[in-house]
Amino acid sequence: MNRRTLKTLMAPALIAATMTLSAGQALAQADKPAYGGTLSVGTVYSTISALTWDMADWNWKQSHDSGQYYEQLFAADLSKSKRNGGPHSFYADAYLPLDAIRGELAETWRWMENPLRLEVKLRKGVMFPEKKGVMAARELVADDVVFSFNHLANSPKKIPNYFDHVNKVEATDRHTVLFSFKDYFAEWDYRFGWGYYSSILPKEVVAAGATNWKNHNGSGPFMLTDFVSGNSNTYTKNPIYWDKETIGGQAYKLPFVDKLVYRIIKDEAAQHAALRTGKLDILESIRWSAVEELKKSAPQLKWSRWTNMSGTFLSMRVDTKPFTDVRVRRALNMAVNKQEIVKSYYGGNAELFGYPQHPDYIGYYEPLSAMPESIKELFAYNPDKAKKLLAEAGYPNGFSFKVQVCSCNPDHMDLLPLVAAYLEKVGVKVQLQPMEYGAFLSAMTSKKLEAGYFMNNGHSNPTTTIRKSFVTGQTWNPSQWADPAFDRKMNVVYGERDEGKRQALLKEMTREIVDKAPYIWLPTPYVYTAWWPWVKNYNGELRAGAVRPGPIYARLWLDQEMKQKMGFK
């Protein structure tokens, strides 16, 4: 079976890609690369320290913190970025279009039918460096892929049903891995190829103790050499890293910088000060309200703007009164003036309707103008109808409920009181309960959260954004939505090989869940990224997989002479 046939039959099957240089890329990369220096980054998650180091803990942030040294079978093809003359921005938290995926540890792969199997040939000569007290330097082999899969699949903390489509994973020789499928599964590439839980680690790390960051070791461009909770992650150049970047017709060994440092800075003003003074080379997430002042105080900064890849909402537990009644949930949506939030709170820097599908998901996203009237009604301010619906549901005098919110998010700490003020006008009183991130996350994952839960939830990708939040029993399901008919629709999506048909099914499911209003749907703000001009080979790209920026940072270099001439050390 040839690749063209496979692409049609197995969509979204990956298209094997090599890092080739386009004319646009040559133009964009006219500067000659330089080695050395320390790249300091305030990442998208600069307020949140590493939550765990053990892959088996199934924490969403782990590939953000470990993706510099743990590699995966697939990664973003950064040669397709807009910076290189391609079509993609690489902002999405966990979405790679079909033409934007390359093999990382996988060199080639092919599908086989009857029974359905995926054969992956690994690159030869990819090495784990020596880690004293943990392991000697050795080659990454197929047994490591099998071990990594089983390490996650057998964890009691795994996301329910996440790997159920896989019957078994086995090494058929030193560099060949065979995935045997129970049935076709549309997210096969994301689930154990380039997703949140796709990292390939050596068994020696687990044997030494995977909860201890000091034992970690991977085949990626950097090595984790220091971690101070609440302060920084430090990664040092892996001297035996295998990959290269072709620039101007010449292949350069990666990475370019000697060190990469994540700065954990919880205070927003301190983040901006660190950027202005050059202590940060890149600050990836800046609220719109700070942009103009930063442009005035540091006019040489370079900028990109993106629609937040996390939806903002107030979740209502549908298994708890009064939120078991859809009239109450719809009433609370109508009670909040969302257009005013866009205009006055965000200064116009937000999309009124940008969740649960993201505007960047072409073919999956439908604008509000295309939605039925019952959905449009949820985004139109109508406190009179809200009061009427509350009265019909048996709450003519309103009610009160607790809402948990993370103190780690300055935007939410400002926005939730505004939402509460709107609700109070229709007799609904909100009791705010700020929480540190660890406790806030635990409340949801343990399903011990209050009736109200105010959060951002990453869109992830067009399929996962629906599955993780609205399929029965899922971890990231704060509303506790449970509908067997909806679950069956999700199964149909996953079994559909044709992407166009999946798009139609997901549009229908998106309309259904928005209309039933398990959340107060709130606007999705624009976010800004800023960096200094001495950061080269960069245009604001954020992820090369699921919240994984490691391959991006490995390809950046620093013009240290420019930095010094600009008065920074």
What can you see in these coordinates?
The chain is of the alpha+beta class and 569 residues long. The protein folds into two domains: 3-19 and 32-285 and 532-565, Periplasmic binding protein-like II (D-Maltodextrin-Binding Protein, domain 2), CATH 3.40.190; 310-525, Dipeptide-binding Protein, domain 3. 29% of the residues lie in helices and 22% in strands. The strands form seven sheets. Strands 1, 10, 11, 14, 15, 16, 18 and 23 form an eight-stranded mixed β-sheet that branches. Strand 12 and strand 13 (250-253) form a beta hairpin. Helix 16 runs antiparallel to helix 17 (499-516). It is globular, with a radius of gyration of 24 Å. The termini are far apart. Residues 1-29 have low confidence and may be disordered.
Number of strands: 25
Q: Total helix count?
A: 19
CATH domain class name of the largest domain: Alpha Beta
Average pLDDT metric: 93
Distance between the termini: 57 Å
Structural class estimated from helices and strands: alpha+beta
What is the CATH homology-level superfamily of the largest domain? Periplasmic binding protein-like II
| Structural shape | globular
Q: Work out the radius of gyration.
A: 24 Å
Biggest β-sheet description: 8 strands, mixed
The overall number of domains is 2
Helix fraction bin:
25-40%
CATH names the topology of the largest domain as D-Maltodextrin-Binding Protein, domain 2
Q: Beta fraction of the residues?
A: 15-25%
Low-pLDDT residue intervals, each spanning 5 or more residues: 1-29
* Second-tier CATH architecture of the largest domain: 3-Layer(aba) Sandwich
